[in-house]
Write a structure and sequence with these properties.
The longest helix has 18 residues. It is built from four helices and nine strands; from the N terminus they run E-H-E-H-E-E-E-H-E-E-E-E-H. It is of the alpha/beta class and 179 residues long. The two termini are 15 Å apart. The model has no long low-confidence stretch (mean pLDDT 94). It is 24% helix and 31% strand. The protein has a single domain, classed as Rossmann fold, CATH 3.40.50. The chain binds xanthosine-5'-monophosphate and magnesium ion. The site of magnesium ion (MG) has 3 residues, from loops. Belongs to the purine/pyrimidine phosphoribosyltransferase family. One of its GO terms (biological process) is hypoxanthine metabolic process. Pathway: Purine metabolism; GMP biosynthesis via salvage pathway; GMP from guanine: step 1/1; Purine metabolism; IMP biosynthesis via salvage pathway; IMP from hypoxanthine: step 1/1. Pfam families: Pribosyltran (PF00156).
Amino acid sequence: MYEDIAETLLTKEQIQKKVQELGRIVSEEYKGLNPLCICVLKGAVPFMADLIREMTIPIEVDFMAVSSYGNSTTSSGVVRIMKDLETSIEGRHVLIVEDIIDSGLTLSYLVELLKGRKAASVKIITMLDKPERRKVDLRPDYSGFTIPDAFVVGYGLDYAEKYRNLPYIGILKKEVYTR
Ligand code: XMP
Ligand code: MG
C-alpha cells in the first residue's frame, strides 16, 4: 500500500494540527447553535471523526451517501441519494463535512437540497480544496488545505476503494492508475 504512493502531500502531524485549528474555529462560531454535522460518506469519515472530537460544544451527527450521475471522470452535477439523513433539518444549523471539493458539482447540489429542507443555515467544511478544477462557483466556508490538481489518496480518500486507511495524504504513483 505505502509503496504505491509517489509522495506525501500532507503528513499525519500536519493534518492533526489543522483539524485542531478547524475544531477551535467551528466551536467558536457554532456556540449555542447545536449544529448538525453531516458526514458525506465515505471519504469524509476520518475527517468527521477527528473534527468532532476537537469540537468543544454540543453537536449532533448524521450521515449521507450520494453518488453522482455521469461517467467515472466527469460528474454531471445530478446527484443520487444513496443514504439520506435520519433527522429533520428544519430550523437546524447544518455543517456539511467533506473530504475534498473538486468540480464542486456534488456539493452545490447538496447545499441546495438541504436549504430546500428549510435548514436555518447550511455551511461547508472540507479537509481539502482543489479550486483549479472548479466548474461551479462554490467556496467552502472552512477549508483545511488548498491543494494542486493531483489525484490524492489517504485520510479517507480512495482510488478504487483502496488507501482510505492511510494516516496521511499522498499522491498516487501514475503506474497504479495505468496497470
Ligand atoms: P465534485 O463534485 O466536487 O466531487 O467533483 C468531489 C468528489 O470527487 C472525488 N475526488 C477525489 N477522490 N482523490 C480522491 O480520492 C482526489 O484527488 C479526488 N478529487 C475528487 C471525491 O469523492 C469527492 O468527494
Ligand atoms: Mg466524497
